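Handout, page 2. Input:
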Amino acid sequence: LSLILSLGATKDMGKMLGGDEEKDPDAAKKEEERQEALRQEEEERKAKYAKMEAEREVMRQGIRDKYGIKKKEEKEAEAQAALEANAEGSLTRPKKAIPPGCGDEEEEEEESILDTVIKYLPGPLQDMFKK
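Output:
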């Protein structure tokens, strides 16, 4: 028994010291089979997760239908369609909506706010502000 161990040990020692290594004639074939097995496992894993995600999406869609929720993509598509409908027939970009009271008429806006505040003040204070 010790003779067998010592022969195996010296054989390994020779490899470590830079001796000739045994060449496995089927090494390339084994490596190719190993790579193929890895690819197959990866495909099976992807298929498994794709199936799980499809099941989750069915459940999500059921919840969206039940509560009337729209997907983010659907909301963006509707917003884009609305912009296109507004710009249909127009050769320029859509105009920005300016709310009334905005723009050059700043002084009138300030006066109207002041008048509104004065209306709610007690009588003697109203007289002070009107002078």
